[in-house]
């Protein structure tokens, strides 16, 4: 079997990442979340969202974050919903590791 090549930054494998968590903050507090992260990790993401979000912001926020609660790196994307609600999505990009393991993904087979 041939080992799959690493995807380039323009390939669909790089752009498409699995969403692991969806978090909603409202009025500067964690309002709700769903996904695979622990409650502690979700609260940490909510705190980061609140810290990096500017009041009255209508744009988006995107950055890589390292969670102290589980020691993993994630891509965080946040966008304004309604009023003072913010939706944050946490993904595990396939570009982090070419090997499988806990909290990692392997390169997609071609």
Structural description of this entry:
The chain has a 5-stranded antiparallel beta sheet with strand order 2-1-5-4-3. With 110 residues, the chain is α+β, with helices and mostly antiparallel strands. It is 16% helix and 35% strand. It has a domain at 17-92: 2-Layer Sandwich (Beta-Lactamase).
The main β sheet shows up as: 5 strands, antiparallel
> Please, what is the average pLDDT?
75
Task: Bin the strand percentage.
Answer: 35-45%
- CATH architectural name of one domain: 2-Layer Sandwich
Strand order of the largest sheet: 2-1-5-4-3
Identify the CATH homologous superfamily of one domain.
Dynein light chain 2a, cytoplasmic
Beginning-to-end CA distance, first to last residue: 11 Å
What would you say about this model in short?
The protein is of the alpha+beta class and 110 residues long.
Question: What topology emerges from the helices and strands here?
Answer:
Elements: H1 12-15, E1 18-26, E2 29-35, H2 39-52, E3 60-66, E4 73-80, E5 85-92
Antiparallel strand pairs: 1-2, 1-5, 3-4, 4-5
Please tag this protein with its features.
16% helix; 2 helices; five-stranded antiparallel β-sheet; 5 strands; alpha+beta; Beta-Lactamase; 110 residues; 35% strand
